[in-house]
Amino acid sequence: GDSVTQMEGPVTLSEEAFLTINCTYTATGYPSLFWYVQYPGEGLQLLLKATKADDKGSNKGFEATYRKETTSFHLEKGSVQVSDSAVYFCALSDQGFQKLVFGTGTRLLVSP
Amino acid sequence: KAGVTQTPRYLIKTRGQQVTLSCSPISGHRSVSWYQQTPGQGLQFLFEYFSETQRNKGNFPGRFSGRQFSNSRSEMNVSTLELGDSALYLCASSVDNSPLHFGNGTRLTVT
Predict the structure, then answer these.
(1) What distance in Å separates residue A100's CA from the closest CA in chain B?
(2) With an 8 Å Cβ cutoff, are A100 and B45 in contact?
(3) Do the Cβ atoms of B104 and A101 come within 8 Å?
(4) Rounded to whole angstroms, what are the CA distances from A17 to A22, A35, A45, A84, B49?
(5) Which residues of B are less than 8 Å from A34 in CB distance?
(6) In this structure, are residues B47 and B54 in contact, taking their beta carbons and an 8 Å threshold?
(7) SS3 label, residue B59
(8) How far apart are CA A94 and CA B14, in angstroms?
(9) Which one of A44, A95, A99 has the shortest CB-CB distance to B102?
């Protein structure tokens, strides 16, 4: 079945450092790909998405490119802030946008 | 616009009991999905309702059920609770074919 693999956390960075969180997927079709973020005590918020190969999703300085050849959707940000500390989830869906398969999540800790 | 509202935020139940969780979607959203989040299994899809019909179902036992009302509000029910049902239950709503908007969840503890 479909699956998503994310790098283990926590990822610990200093403010203004460059961020990469790796995400690879396995799917039989051509899924849509997502990054969601979860702040403590809250639900998930959509960060960005891409629905076809070579699409780049971007939001709030975060970017990810749908790479079909490497089945990857790595999340990047050029300069992280303390307020970016959260858990980041990579997800895919090949049945509309409602039934998502999530990765295990990567906790990001940014220190001043 | 109000977000997805889940009630209650916290719930403590005893093994063998049943529980009902409630979700009010964003106004105009007709699709409601439910997810279970645990440290061990992560985020897992339970089911999705659209216009009062279950449209998709995850791989959970029949003790987990749900329904959707004509105003799109949804409830999920878990019967004969087990310790392993302790989790954060997340509800999400969407306009069809658009990304999910999640609520803050109901944290269920089974003792």
Answers:
(1) 7
(2) yes
(3) no
(4) 16, 20, 23, 12, 42
(5) 99
(6) yes
(7) coil
(8) 37
(9) A44
Pick left, alpha or beta for residue B58 (phi over 0 → left; psi -120 to 50 → alpha; otherwise beta): beta
E strands along A2-100, which residues? Answer: 3-6, 11-14, 19-21, 23-26, 32-38, 44-50, 56-59, 62-65, 75-77, 86-93
B94 touches chain A (CB under 8 A): yes
- Separation between Cα atoms, residue B31 and residue B50, nearest integer Å: 4
Inter-residue contact B107 to B9 (CB < 8 Å)? yes
Which chain B residue's Cα is nearest to A3? Answer: B44
pLDDT digits (tens, 9 = 90+) for B62-106: 999 999 999 999 999 999 999 999 999 999 999 977 889 999 999
**Average pLDDT of the residues of chain A:** 94
Closest CA to A68 of A33, A106, A36: A33
CA dihedral B92, A85, A7, A20 (to 10 degrees): 110
The whole-number pLDDT of residue A15 equals 97
Give the position of tokens 């849509």.
A32
